[in-house]
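User: Can you recover a sequence for this backbone? Please restate the input before giving your answer.

Assistant: Of course. Working from this structure:
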């Protein structure tokens, strides 16, 4: 009840904030028209050419996009058959995605976190994995992923002590939110401890992926182009500057220019809408200005170069004599120093660098960064470093060495993702034909169509090897893929109860992700990734017709396994250790948070290796611990009594139940 009230409060705040949000976008669009473009995407009316399935990688803006590129390229190499959709929230981030990744990925804005928009987003793209950079957490996005059984991974996660206090202050919202994240990959041990203290139990330390930055494809060409104009000059690059910083830098310039006659100040404002304003500041200061957007190169007499273009900062860093990282004099939290130190540049920052505190603190310990408190100290430090070439180069070399030692986070993150998802990302494919949607494993089917979900088709292939008895028939079939035989079970979904006598196999319309077949397919896949003994899902079929749908599922048959009812009726009693193994298997299921609503003795199998398998997860779901766990056990006990009353012989005594409970409690104590 408390969580439901918390979600309601959050949704209410969202809707109350809709008008201010639109007003903010309108205000931003006055300075940057891109904020009013593609507005439909912000509410998840996505381009029609986006392919469903695959992986969604969410970034925020330019810095996160650049950090994510090595990871995206590794995902493309490991999972070449899966489309990758990269999302962001800012126009500059969008421009960076297009310029750096082009048509190798799909791209759209991440919708605002309204429940309807996020539901459409997840159902339209139907991703198999959602990767989120850093700590960009949206409750409705994570809720929809959790509900659709889509694993979510938080990569490069960082949490400062200050932010952790805020999370605890809003625990009514954040605790449930963190529990919906499947895997959290922290930048450092301190962040990992803070996330664990907030209640997340699947945290790994992988390092900072920004240390694995890759140079953009056009970098070399831009660098060569700039070299003739910058060679022989003292180049002071101020990257990602904010309002209030450019003014201070321009005030310092004349003093420095008197000491270093060839000094060129390069200003790279963080936000494009400030380009013209910064140009006006330079002109008002009486300094000679060159703008990158005007073409050509800075002349020998140019005093200030304004980089009013996107995606070229790295090339200017490479040619810099000294680099100042903006956002740090004006309390904005600073920006990423790694893009400069990878070139072995001496770096300066103001006192406000809390956004990258860990990196700057480590650089400080290595004497690889200059931290100044105000413009006066910045002036003195700049003059000192520009005058002492050896000292400046030594500081830059210490920074480069630190950068090199920290690399490897992308490889560690990829390993963690692979361990989480198993082989499902390698083999799971999706087809969409008219109103039909198919999910299937490419290692079992090269392609699939409606016919392969019909028993008649398998009969025509002489591939039916048997069928089950019960309320609804399940067909056992054999399929050949690349000379590899696969024993499968085909099951069509039927309705139960009185309504089933009328509608039989039609279910009221639901989005494909939330249909019976796709939910069971996803749940089985997730449980296998948790190490549970359940059948492998092979293919699922969703067929919409008006306001209803039909569904089918193909799973791998467990060879040599018999359900408990058949075994107890036709062969023998179970040994005590076998009953305990049943209890252990159920406890593992409950520890994973899976409610098996139809846990009976026909849905528990025992194979020739004495492995206990659980089957038939239609209408089952993941839940927090509660009374349903005991209800599952009681459901199984009732089914044993029922079969005992119906079947003769039936080799079971009520005393055997205690062994089930013993195994269950042993596993729970763990």
């Amino acid at each position: 009840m408390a969580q439901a009230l918390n979600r309601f409060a959050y949704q209410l705040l969202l809707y109350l904030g809709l008008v201010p949000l639109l007003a903010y976008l309108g205000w931003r669009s006055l300075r940057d028209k891109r904020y009013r473009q593609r507005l439909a995407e912000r509410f998840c009316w996505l381009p029609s050419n986006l392919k469903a399935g695959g992986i969604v990688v969410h970034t925020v803006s330019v810095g996160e996009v650049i950090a994510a590129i090595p990871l995206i390229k590794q995902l493309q190499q490991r999972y070449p058959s899966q489309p990758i959709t990269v999302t962001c929230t800012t126009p500059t981030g969008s421009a960076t995605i297009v310029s750096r990744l082009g048509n190798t990925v799909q791209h759209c804005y991440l919708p605002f976190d309204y429940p309807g928009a996020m539901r459409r987003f997840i159902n339209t793209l139907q991703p198999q994995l959602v990767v989120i950079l850093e700590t960009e957490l949206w409750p409705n996005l994570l809720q929809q992923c959790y509900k659709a059984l889509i694993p979510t991974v938080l990569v490069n996660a960082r949490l400062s002590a200050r932010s952790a206090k805020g999370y605890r202050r809003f625990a009514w919202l954040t605790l449930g939110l963190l529990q919906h994240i499947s895997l959290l990959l922290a930048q450092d041990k301190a962040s990992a401890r803070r996330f664990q203290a907030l209640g997340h139990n699947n945290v790994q330390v992988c390092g900072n992926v920004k240390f694995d930055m890759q140079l953009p494809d056009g970098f070399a060409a831009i660098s060569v182009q700039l070299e003739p104009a910058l060679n022989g000059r003292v180049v002071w690059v101020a990257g990602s500057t904010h309002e209030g910083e450019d003014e201070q830098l321009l005030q310092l310039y004349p003093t420095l220019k008197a000491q270093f006659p060839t000094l060129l100040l390069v200003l790279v404002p963080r936000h494009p809408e400030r380009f013209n304003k910064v140009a006006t500041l330079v002109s008002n200061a009486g300094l000679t200005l060159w703008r990158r957007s005007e073409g050509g190169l800075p002349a020998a007499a140019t005093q200030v170069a304004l980089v009013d273009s996107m995606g070229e900062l790295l090339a200017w860093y490479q040619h810099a004599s000294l680099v100042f990282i903006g956002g740090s004099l004006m309390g904005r939290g600073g920006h990423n120093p790694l893009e400069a130190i990878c070139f072995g540049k001496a770096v300066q920052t103001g006192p406000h660098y809390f956004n990258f505190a860990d990196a700057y603190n480590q650089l400080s310990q290595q004497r690889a960064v200059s931290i100044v408190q105000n413009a006066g100290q910045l002036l003195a430090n700049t003059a000192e470093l520009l005058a002492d070439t050896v000292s400046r180069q030594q500081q830059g070399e210490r920074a480069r060495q630190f950068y090199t030692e920290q690399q490897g986070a992308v490889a560690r993150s990829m390993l963690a993702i692979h361990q989480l998802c198993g082989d499902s990302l390698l083999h799971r494919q999706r087809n969409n034909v008219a109103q039909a949607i198919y999910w299937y494993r490419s290692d079992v089917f090269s392609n699939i169509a409606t016919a392969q979900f019909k028993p008649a088709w398998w009969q025509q292939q002489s591939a039916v090897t048997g069928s089950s008895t019960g309320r609804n028939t399940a067909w056992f079939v054999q399929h050949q893929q690349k000379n590899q035989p696969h024993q499968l079970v085909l099951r069509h979904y039927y309705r139960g109860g009185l309504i089933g006598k009328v509608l039989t196999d039609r279910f009221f319309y639901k989005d494909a992700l939330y249909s019976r077949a796709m939910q069971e397919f996803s749940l089985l896949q997730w449980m296998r990734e948790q190490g549970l003994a359940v059948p492998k899902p092979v293919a699922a079929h969703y067929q919409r017709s008006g306001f209803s749908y039909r569904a089918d599922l193909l799973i791998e048959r467990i060879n040599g396994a018999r359900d408990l009812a058949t075994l107890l009726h036709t062969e023998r009693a179970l040994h005590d250790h076998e009953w305990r193994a049943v209890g252990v298997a159920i406890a593992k299921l409950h520890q994973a948070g899976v409610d098996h609503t139809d846990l009976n003795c026909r849905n528990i199998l025992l194979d020739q290796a004495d492995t206990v398998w659980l089957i038939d997860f239609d209408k089952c779901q993941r839940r927090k611990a509660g009374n349903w766990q005991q209800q599952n056990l009681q459901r199984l006990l009732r089914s044993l009594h029922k079969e005992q009353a119906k079947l003769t012989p039936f080799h079971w005594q009520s005393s055997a139940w205690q062994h089930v409970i013993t195994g269950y409690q042993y596993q729970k104590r763990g």
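That completes the design. The chain has four domains: 42-208, 219-405, 428-556, 562-669.
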